[in-house]
Amino acid sequence: MMKYSMMVMLVVLLAACGSNNGSVIEPGKMKLVLWDMMRADEVASIENSRDSITNNLLMHAVEHYEQVFAVHAITKEQFYNSYQYYREHPMEHKDLMDSLSAYATRMKEAKDKKEKDKVDSLQKIRLHNDSLAPKKDSITLKKDSIATAKKDAAAIRKDSIAAVVAKKHVADSLRRDSARRGLSPRPTNAKIDSVRKQFQLRRDLLKRAPLRLDSLRKRQSMPIQRL
Fold first, then answer.
1. Are 60 and 54 in contact (CB under 8 A)?
2. What is the average per-residue pLDDT within 15-34?
3. Which of 92, 132, 191, 226 could pair with 187 as two cysteines, CB 3.0-4.6 Å apart?
4. What PROSITE patterns does its record include (predicted)?
């Protein structure tokens, strides 16, 4: 990208040949001017890709170069003369290009670090949110378990009541059937005891019957005594 930017600037420089007015810009400031012009080239390249007119890169670049000159408070002639000076002095030109390359590297590293810090920050937020998710899930599960337990308990109570009602209904139905058929109701404990006593009495009477029969026979066999 740097070579491409230098090519665009070189075209502009050639168009401005013959101008030797103005002082030479010192290396530190010249480095910053060149850096901004490289960035202007990138913007011009993007704008040219969107332009309906092809091969219009130079026009877009020149527009942004004028903005760079205004930001650094220099004239177009000052920049062209300074650039021509450094090209005519190879050692100073090399030092300028090396300084510009190192500056570009630092700027790239700073940009990469900023983007990495942003990604790390987003990752920390995501991890924090993920760590909170199980707590929310456990609370939700606990609420669901309580709701399910209450629902099951209510269902069990409902089933128990239904079973009691059904049992009572069956008993009532049996009693109604017994009444319609003229069947005796189920004997109570008092009636059972009365039947037992009657049975015991009859059994005792049967046991005593032979003794009475023998006594009667003896009486019949005895001679009748006359008075």
1. no
2. 77
3. 191
4. PROKAR_LIPOPROTEIN
SS3 state at 115? helix
Angle between helices 2-15 and 90-181 (to 10 degrees): 130
pLDDT, tens only, 142-178: 777 777 777 776 766 776 676 666 666 666 776 776 6
1 Cβ contact list (under 8 Å, min separation 6): 38, 41, 42
Asked if 3 and 10 count as a contact pair (C-beta separation under 8 A), the reply is: no
pTM over 0.85: no
Q: Which residue has the tokens 């877009």?
A: 60
- Maximum CA pair distance of the chain? 198
| CA 50 to the chain's CA centroid | 41
The closest alpha carbon to 37, from 76, 94, 87, belongs to: 76
What's the one-letter identity of residue 221?
S
CB atoms within 10 A of CB 64: 18
Q: Compute the distance between CA of residue 178 and CA of residue 167 in angstroms, rounded to an integer.
A: 17
Which two tokens mark 147?
């709701």
Q: At what angle do helices 27-50 and 57-71 cross, to 10 degrees?
A: 140
Q: Give Cβ neighbours of residue 99 (< 8 Å, ≥ 6 apart).
A: 27, 28, 31
